[in-house]
Amino acid sequence: MKIVLRLLFILLVAGIVFGFYYRSQIDFKWGERIIGYSVLGGTFLYLPLFLYHRWKGKRLKDYTLSEENFKKMREEN
């Protein structure tokens, strides 16, 4: 999964850079589309995969402020 995320990130950044180059040198309309598709891919493809990878195996209860966690924090201090 780590390799897939790195490869996808590199492809998305390369797409944005290529889109800016294409927009300024060749065709403005198609350059804007390339940039837009790269941003959409990053938002709807890369971001959910990244979040799934980072949160896999973790419990949300450990990161929320509940009465149990407040008691633990008070006991530590």
If you had to describe this structure to a student in words, what would you say it looks like?
By secondary structure, this protein is mainly alpha-helical. The chain has one domain. Helices cover 81% and strands 0% of the residues. It is built from 3 helices and no strands. The chain has helices at 2-25, 28-55, 67-76. It is elongated, with a radius of gyration of 20 Å.
Q: What share of residues is helical?
A: over 70%
Domain unit count: 1
Distance between the termini: 39 Å
What Rg is obtained from the alpha carbons, in whole angstroms? 20 Å
Strand content: under 5%
Mean pLDDT over the full residue set: 91
The SS-based structural class is mainly alpha
Name the overall outline. Answer: elongated
Number of helices: 3
Low-confidence stretches: none
Order of helices and strands: HHH
- Main beta sheet: strand number and arrangement? none
Query: Would you report the number of β strands?
Result: 0
Give a short synopsis of this structure:
With 77 residues, the protein is mainly alpha-helical. The protein is built from three helices and no strands.
Chart the SSEs and their pairings.
Blueprint lengths: L1 H24 L2 H28 L11 H10 L1
Helix pairs in contact: 1-2
What are the key terms here?
mainly alpha; 77 residues
